[in-house]
Design a protein that fits this description.
Layout: E1 18-20, E2 23-26, H1 30-34, H2 39-49, H3 59-69, E3 72-74, H4 76-89, E4 94-99, H5 108-122, E5 126-131, H6 153-160, H7 163-167, E6 177-180, H8 182-185, H9 190-197, H10 202-206, H11 209-216, H12 223-226, H13 228-239, E7 247-251, H14 255-267, E8 274-278, H15 305-312, H16 320-327, H17 332-343, H18 349-364, H19 367-381, E9 393-396, H20 403-411, H21 415-423, E10 427-430, E11 436-438, E12 455-460, E13 464-469
Parallel strand pairs: 4-5, 4-7, 5-6, 7-8, 9-13
Antiparallel strand pairs: 1-2, 3-8, 10-11, 10-12, 12-13
Length: 470
């Protein structure tokens, strides 16, 4: 199946069009990506895409778009058939999505599957939103290393009180069918529970890494946590009395639970739901661990714009591709171009992060809040910094060594790379009194002696430093 036109080796889009199955889909970024990327224009374009109707896409185009943005689709052929049947019958698919009110704040990683819901709604499919007011009392054990005290009804209602305000920027709550799983779970009998448990192998549940680690460390593992995926299945089965769901959507961390749910539906001779899982957002504070409320390493949707902006700026450069893929409608080819421009020093990663922060804040608040957050960030971090006490390599050089040769020899960068960084104002010489001189095309070939008397610091962006003595 053909999706997008491939990115040529020079990192430019030759045709100013991006295709889904030979049909124009996006063509609004071609000029921006082929030139020196204007981050403000990139933000504006991607924010507009977020509100673009996708109802006219064919079922093949819908599948291509969903597949690129999803981490896993199980099984793919099943989703293809459902999308095709939906187009032929003009009957929208129903997507099951649940919210766990364990905590008062919803964070950025939760926005990833919600943005996928937004895409599905723009394709004119329907959302069945389940509030896990009953399941929250059990608590999802996934990724946890120890047990947590159960929540009361009052705790759950308090957490739920702000959820609508936090969720509404990401998908249309007015068009969703909202239900609470306590409606059906609180009336389940012991006979029903025992019958369901008889269909599940305990060895399968105990093979989970998180469970095994807790047992190896002599930590508690409750029976309530063991039946958590069983309760998920009971949701799907019970919900069919209210509304038949075609797809279950959530993040990678729930994939095992969704697969068990799917298996139990097949055991019960029911048509199983197609699974769509999305990627996990990591964050610098915790390395490989996902962004999580229980780990307190998250960007909350109800953080103020300045907090969101500052936290996004702390995201490692190597994670930017995942964040852009998960949180925006940028295509794979477009991401590849941005990534190549960063690697070739055509584009400062800091500006790419600023773009991501502004897009996210624009979705939650508005464009003005995003612009003001950037202004406030620049004011806070543009104060003159004393670089003299930063640990860095130190070299001795000859009077007649040029700036470009010093950088070339020490950092192993090509002359063309160095010139491009200079064009983007990414190279500075910091004098002993902490004043800075910008390196540009006019002085990059000058000897270091013509600029400094005996010592200085050469700075490339804000990440590479070298002390120079002559």
């Amino acid at each position: 199946m053909e999706t997008y036109n491939k990115m040529p080796e020079n990192g430019k889009i030759k045709e100013k069009k991006i295709y889904f199955n030979n049909q124009v889909y996006w063509n609004d970024l071609a000029d921006i990506l082929n030139d020196n990327i204007d981050i403000d224009k990139l933000c504006l374009t991607l924010t507009k895409r977020y509100n673009t109707d996708l109802w006219n896409l064919s079922w093949e185009q819908q599948f291509s778009f969903l597949k690129e943005k999803a981490l896993t689709i199980i099984p793919e052929e099943n989703l293809l058939k459902k999308l095709k049947d939906s187009k032929i019958s003009w009957k929208p698919l129903v997507i099951k999505f649940w919210i766990d009110p364990t905590w008062a704040n919803i964070h950025m990683w939760h926005a990833v599957p919600m943005i996928m819901l937004n895409r599905l709604q723009r394709m004119w499919h329907k959302v069945s939103l389940i509030i896990w007011d009953f399941t929250a009392k059990i608590w999802d054990p996934t990724w946890r290393s120890k047990e947590r005290p159960p929540l009361t009804d009052e705790d759950i209602q308090k957490n739920l009180s702000t959820y609508k305000e936090q969720i509404s920027p990401f998908f249309d709550m007015e068009k969703a069918n909202i239900s609470y799983n306590s409606t059906w779970l609180k009336n389940k009998t012991l006979d029903e529970l025992i019958w369901i448990l008889s269909k599940v192998k305990a060895s399968t549940v105990l093979q989970r890494d998180d469970f095994r680690k807790r047992l190896e460390n002599n930590q508690w593992l409750t029976m309530a946590e063991l039946i958590y995926p069983i309760v998920m299945w009971m949701d799907s089965v019970s919900l069919k009395d209210w509304e038949w769901c075609d797809i279950e959507l959530w993040g990678k961390d729930q994939l095992l639970n969704m697969q068990m749910c799917r298996n139990l539906m097949e055991v019960n001779w029911q048509e199983s739901e197609t699974i769509i899982s999305t990627d996990i957002l990591e964050w610098i504070s915790w390395g490989w661990l996902k962004m999580s409320k229980s780990l307190n390493n998250y960007i909350a949707l109800n953080d103020n714009p300045n907090e969101i902006f500052g936290k996004v700026m702390s995201i490692p450069d190597n994670l930017l591709e995942v964040y852009y893929k998960s949180l925006t409608d940028i295509t794979e080819d477009e991401r590849n171009i941005i990534d190549k421009k960063m690697k070739d020093w055509w584009l400062n990663p800091m500006n790419v992060k600023k773009g991501l922060a502004k897009i996210f804040i624009s979705i939650i608040h508005d464009d003005n809040a995003a612009k003001q957050a950037e202004i406030d960030f620049d004011k806070a971090f543009s104060k003159e910094k004393d670089y003299r006490n930063i640990e860095m390599d130190e070299i001795n050089t000859e009077n007649n060594s040029s700036i470009i040769n010093i950088i070339n020899k020490h950092f192993g960068m090509s002359n063309s790379e160095i010139r491009r960084i200079a064009e983007w104002n990414g190279i500075s010489i910091i004098m002993p009194d902490n004043t800075q001189i910008k390196v540009n095309k006019d002085n990059i070939l000058n000897t270091i002696w013509s600029i400094i008397e005996n010592r200085a610091i050469i700075k490339i962006w804000k990440r590479k430093f070298i002390k120079v003595n002559i």
